[in-house]
Structure formats: C-alpha cells, structure tokens
Amino acid sequence: MFEDIPVEVGLVFEGERIRKEDMQIELGGPKVDQKFEIVLVRNPDAIEDGKISIIGPDLKDIPQGSHVRFGLLVEVAGSNLEEDLEGVLERRIHEYMNYIQGVMHLNQRYDIWIRVGKKSYAKGLDSFTDIGKAIERLYRSELALIEKIQITFLTGGDYFESLYAMARERYELRDARARGISDEEVDTFYGCALCQSFAPSHICVITPERYANCGAISWFDGRAAARMDPEGPIFPIARDTCIDPEKGEYAGINEHARKRSMGEVNRVYLYSAFGYPHTSCGCFEAIAFYIPEVEGFGIVHRRFPGPTVNGLPFSTLADSTAGGRQVEGFHGISLEYMRSRKFLCADGGWNAIVWMPKEIKESLTGFIPEDIAGKIATEADASDVLALEEFLKRKNHPVTEQWPDSTQVSTEQSESSSASQFTGAGGQGPVFVAGELPITTGGVKIILKNAKIFAEKVIIRPLEKDGKGGTK
Q1: Residue 172 backbone phi and psi in degrees, to 5
Q2: Which domains can be identified in the chain, with CATH numbers?
Q3: pTM, to two decimals
Q4: Judging by beta carbons within 10 Å of its beta carbon (0-12, 13-18, 19+), is residue 298 exposed, middle or buried?
Q5: Nearest-5° Cα angle at 148, 142 to 153
Q6: Please, what is the end-to-end C-alpha distance for the chain in angstroms?
Q7: Whose CA is closest to 278, among 290, 260, 265?
Q8: Which of 132-141, 327-336, 436-445 has the lowest mean pLDDT?
Q9: pLDDT digit string (tens) for 94-106?
Q10: Apex 168 CA angle, 165 and 173, nearest 5
C-alpha cells in the first residue's frame, strides 16, 4: 500500500513528537499567521480522482528550519457524501498525517502545526506528493463512502489568500448551525478518541453546547461521524441521568470516562473548571485559567504571542492543562464553546471572566453580554495582575463583589513576581494548583496528585553556597 513512499506509514507513529532540534521544516504553527486545512465535498465532475497538486514551493525547495504558511485542501466526492460530513472528514487529517513516520500534526482548521523531521527528510520524504499519497490511500481504505479524492498543498501563490478566506467562512457556517440546540434536548452525546494517542486518559465529550476542545467537531459532526463509521474514533455516549445540571455532570459520561481512561478519570464536569473539569489533550484552541489574585478567569488562545496577565505564556499554561489530566483551575476549551450559554456556567459564566486577548474579545462581539464586555480587560488594559486588579476595581467588575473591602495586593507581594503569581486576593484562593506535584525530601520522593495548596505567603529564595561544598 505504501511501497512507493520513502518512509513507513502506520498507527505506531501516531504519538510521535518532533522537537525543534530534530525539525527539518515547520508548516503553519504559532510563528505563522495564516494556515488552514479543509475538506470540501464536491460534485464528482469537479474532481480529478487521485490528483495531487502543489502550489508554491515543495518541501525540497524550502530551506531547513523554515516556518512556512501552509494550506491543505482535500476535495472528495461520493454518492453518499454530504456537506454535513466535511468537518468529520477534515478531522481525520490529524490522524492520517500522524501515521506518517517523521511527520507531526497538531491542532486543526486555522491553527494547524505540522513538523517534518530531519531523519524522514533524509530518507527521501522531501515532497508533499508523498504525504498526499499517504493521506489519499488512508482515506480510501478507511472510508468507503469516498469514491473520488483530489488533494492540493499550498505554500504560496495568490490562490492561497482566497482559499484561506473561504475556509474561514466555511468554518463559521458549520459552527453557526450547531448553536440552536441545547444539551437538554438530546439523549445522546458523542465522544472522540482521536487524540488518545497523545493523551491516553483524555476523555473528549461533545454535546450541543460544548464543542470538542479542538474546535473542529460539533454535536452534529459527532452524530454524522458515528453513523458514517460506527467502529471509528467518534462514538455515541448515552446521556443517561443528569446528576448535576449546573456543573454538567451526567451518569453516562462518568461511566464512559471510567471505561475509556481505564479508571484514571471517574467523574467529569462539562461546565466547570473546578472539581472534576473536562480533560484536555493538547489540541485545545484556548485555555481558561484561574487567577486567584482576583478570583476570576483569564482566557488565552494559541495564537497569543506574549505572556498573559499572570506572566505565563500559552505554552506554560498548556503544560498545566494538557495530557488528559484534571487540574482544577486550568481548562482547555474551544473558541466556539465560549459562544455557548453553558460556558463555565457553574463558575459564573461570563461574569467570572476578567482578562482575554483583544483578538478573542473582538471575535466574540455579540456573544459576550453587553453588561460585562466593557469590564473584561485585554492586554491593552492590563499586562500584570496589579494592573488587572486596578482595572477590575475601576470598572466595578462582578468579581470585585467577592473581595473584602480592603482587598489590596500587599507591598511585599508587588515586590515579588513569584508571589504575585501564587497568592490569592485577600488570601482567599489557592496559591498553587497542580495535577501532579513531586516533592523530594529525606531520600524519598512524595508525589501529590491533584494538589491544592493554601498558604498565607510563598517565599522563594535562591540557594546559597555554604562554603563547604553544600548549600544553605
């Protein structure tokens, strides 16, 4: 099946990671503004079956270490294919690319991040044609509904701009379709296991009002996928008894979580970042992170370039969020979930959001309630927690009602960036939250799982040499 491709292709490579030092080329990713992948269902007459096209420089024409804008268009046709299946077929790109030895694919839609490794490149994987062959054959072998397929890779050219704009419009049309139905109206939710190779205990649950964390699969997409491929990675979950409607805890989801995570995850709250938050893999579009100093949540998306208001960049926050762990106060989410009426509803919803990048805020115009929109800070309003606290006071944000009248970050805190990251406003919040915290002492290693630590003060001092070869 893959004898004419210079590297191996198979499930064994799905969880492969390619580090920066092992990278030949990076396609898309955080350093590139425009990137996309899209699947479109076409009329059979509009497709030349098996055709693989490259618009712009091919892999062998791109200098080593480059970060390249990248587009992937997959056009399919079949007598039983419908537009409703586009999002489902599109998400398979993530799976199929990761089957290729030396190719790492992360995220989806307009956030794709692909790396080609040096070793595979040296073996001869120096053309998109070979990647296209692998994708084409995997689609055909796994999805008999596809009767014709045509693939186009784009790294430049005028067509890139117009196709990128079209893709963004298409994503929005798909998302809008799913906004008119509530979780209470259905008796079946859907689960997705596409990312369990990266995060074995991750339990992705898709409901009408809670999109997949990756932002690529709606409830309608999940339903279509389960019907199209009953043995595939997207499957139905019986909603069953609603245990807690505010937090979004369902007996069917809990049972599903126990089975899929082999007992690692036993309870899931769909609408809260505390207690038993929905797990995350690594493909989430954004992160909701608790800021204990002000008792509210910040939001940051993958494309935000600098440190957030608490001094931590997206990459650091992602390390505390990903891996299928349930870490209180850290919640991987899709941007579409932020348009849902269930958005963190157990934690206060939009009244609990205190900071987000301007780009996200502008994209959610009309979805953020008018009475709170002007009270949520962006990077233009606050670049650190002290400035954020002053902004929230000035705007009379709802979270300030929880603060003691004398709430004020102490002078000692303001002199320590470390303390400002950990101590809660008024001493009310947890100063540290961790999914797994190792402590080494007395020759033994103690691991605290799902730890929440409260303290009046955190003091961090560098170790000093004691003059005897040790430290003090």
Answers
A1: -65, -40
A2: 11-179 (3.30.1650.10), 181-398 (3.40.1470.10)
A3: 0.69
A4: buried
A5: 90
A6: 63
A7: 265
A8: 436-445
A9: 999 999 999 999 8
A10: 125
